[in-house]
Amino acid sequence: MYEGNRLVLRYIPGVEQATKLAVAADWTLLWDNAGKPYRRHTHEQEWGVRRGLHVRLLSDELSDMCALSVLMEDRAAGAEFERLLIEHLNPLTRQELLEPIISRIDPSERMMRLMRLVLGAPAYYDQEFYEPIAQLAEDPDPRVRDAVVLACGYLEWFQLRAILRRMADQDPHPEVRRDAMNTLVMRDNTNVPPVHP
């Protein structure tokens, strides 16, 4: 199935909003990773709307940010359903997602904007979304840099590997280096055990 755009919900926490919609629309819950440890800090669900049309929920539990995407066999029908979701949910726009993340704002706000940006990023590489991620990988606050490592786990862009490699090798904070190495190991799907503190 083809995955449409990720629609980042404006309201936090978004899981309740998405669940209410699914229940009201009588969608069938197909999959839920609640309580499964394979992906730390992430809650995912998938609902069947009708044959060949599903809705996937991706929620970052640290920021409470949430995104929905439409999975479709028929792109025209899926695009129409996505348009209806946009009308109903009023998700963040591309312009809102790409608002500059400046260093003058509080680190927790930078991390929130980073997660919002990543959850709304396209499945395929997009330079406009990549640049803020690369900039935040150099942030003076190690918590923000560690959030970049976590955020890189939401995107499968090959270009992020260089950022993670640099952070794993050169970041001044040991926890950021460790987390970047663990993310690289998971991305590379190797049998190397995770690095512990």
From TrEMBL:
> What InterPro entries does UniProt report for this protein, alphabetically?
ARM-like (IPR011989), ARM-type_fold (IPR016024)
The protein depicted here goes by the name HEAT repeat protein
Q: Which organism is it from?
A: Nonomuraea polychroma
